[in-house]
Amino acid sequence: MVDVAREAGVALRTVSRVVNQDSTVGPELVQRVRTAIAVLGYRPDERARHLRLGVTGTLGAAVRQLSHVNPVLRAVERAARAADLMVLAASTEDDETLERHVVESMCRRRFDGIVLEPIGDDHGYLVPELEAGLSLVAVDRPVLGLDVDCVLSDNRSGIETAYRHLVRHGHDRIAYIGDDERIYTARERAMAFRECVAAHGGALGTMLHTGQVESGRIREAVRAALAGPAPATAIVTGNAQLSVEVLRQLGTDAVDVALIGFDDSELATLLRPDLTVIAQDTDAIGSTAIEMLRARIADPATEVRKVTVPVELIVRGSGEVPPAF
Fold first, then answer.
1. Is the pLDDT of residue 193 over 90?
2. Local structure of residue 227 (DSSP, 8 states)
3. Is 101 inside any structural domain?
4. Residues 238, 178: contact at Cβ < 8 Å?
5. Which of 131, 160, 214, 235 has its Cα between 20 and 30 A from that of 278?
6. 3-state secondary structure string across 29-51
C-alpha cells in the first residue's frame, strides 16, 4: 500500500480508504489510486484487513450434505480430510462472473490452495495470482490458456465406449443429448459423439442436441430424436442431470429406447431397467487433485501435471435394450 500511495501521489490513508470502498473519497483520487493498483499489480491481503477489523468476512455453514450432488467435491473433501486439511467450498453456479468473484475472494483470503472447476474460457485474471505463488488445481476441466495442474476424466473414451456398446447391441440410430458446449466437458463429449457417427458412416441429422439443461429444451430434443421415419433407437446423455431429464421426457417410452448416461447416480439403480452408465472415478479425481495441490504448495516450482483418469462402463440393463423398430 505504501508503494501504491507513492505511485499515485496520495497519502497512505487515501489508498486504504479506496481499497475499502470509502464513498467519501473524491473520484479523481479514486482513479489515481486504482491506476496505481493496476500498474503495480497490487492485491489486498484480506487476512491483514480482517486482523485490523476483527472480522473475517467469512461464514461457516456446517450442513448435512453440501457435496451430495457433486461427487467430485465429495471426493475432494474426503481426500483433504485424510490429509488434515479443511475445504471451504463455494458454488459458482456455472456463471463466469460469479466464478471470478468467488476465486478472487479466495485469493484475497490467502487460502493455502484452490481446487477449481472452471467455467469460462478467460482466466487471465489469475495470472498475477499464479505469479504471486497461488497453488491451483483444476478438476473436470482445464483452465484454458494457463499452464496449471489439472485432473480430467477421459471424456472422449467414455462416449466412444458408450457408442460402441450400443452398436454391439444392434443400434445404428443413436442420438446424443448433451450440455451447453461452451463448457469444456460438454464440448469434448459432443465432439467425440460426432466422430463416432462419422466413423460408423452415419449422419447426424436430428441425432445431436446440445444446450442448456432445461426441461423445455430436453423435451424438444427427445421429440426430435424420436420423430420421423428413422427415429433413434438409443440415446446417450451427457451427464447425470440430463439422464434424469431425458427419462422424465421419455416416460413410459423409456422401456423401448436404449439409454446410456455419462456419470453415475444413486438414482441409476432405482429404474427399470437400471441405468447403464459411463462412470467417472470421482475418488481418484479427488485424491489426485489434493495430492497435486499439496505437492504444488510444498514446491511451487514443481513440474505442471495433467492427469486423465479412466472412466468405466457399468452395465445395468438400459443400455442393452435391443432396437424396438
1. yes
2. -
3. yes
4. yes
5. 214
6. HHHHHHHHHHHHCCCCCHHHHHH
Cell representation of residue 9: 501521489
133 grid coordinates = 505463488
pLDDT tens sequence across 82-105: 989 889 888 898 889 999 999 998
Query: Reading across the β-sheet that carries 149-153, which strands appear in turn?
Result: 114-116, 136-139, 149-153, 306-309
Tell whether 273 is covered by a domain: yes
Q: Say yes or no: 166 and 85 in one domain.
A: no
Residue 57 pLDDT class (50, 70, 90 cuts): low
Confidence of residue 56 (pLDDT cuts 50, 70, 90): low
- Strands 208-210 and 174-178 turn out to be parallel
In this structure, what CATH number is given to the domain that contains residue 165? 3.40.50.2300
pLDDT band at 49 (very low <50, low <70, confident <90, very high): low
**Residue 298 shares a structural domain with residue 229:** no
Answer whether residue 131 is part of any domain. Answer: yes
CB-based burial of residue 155 (10 Å sphere; 0-12 exposed, 13-18 middle, 19+ buried)? buried
> What is the domain count for the chain?
3
C-alpha cell belonging to residue 310: 479412466
Q: What are phi and psi of 129, to 5 degrees?
A: -70, -40
Work out the mean pLDDT of the chain and round it to a whole number: 89
pLDDT tens readout for residues 138-150: 999 999 889 999 9
SS3 309: strand
3-state secondary structure of 123: coil
- Residue 194 has a pLDDT of 97
**Alpha helices per DSSP H over the chain:** 2-8, 12-19, 27-40, 46-53, 71-82, 96-108, 127-131, 155-168, 184-199, 215-226, 240-250, 282-298
pLDDT of residue 254: 66
Q: What percentage of residues in the chain have a pLDDT greater than 90? A: 60
Strand partners, 260: 236, 276
Round to whole Å and give the CA distance between 117 and 151.
Answer: 10
For the full predicted model, state whether its pTM sits above 0.85. no
Residue 59 is assigned to a structural domain of this protein: no
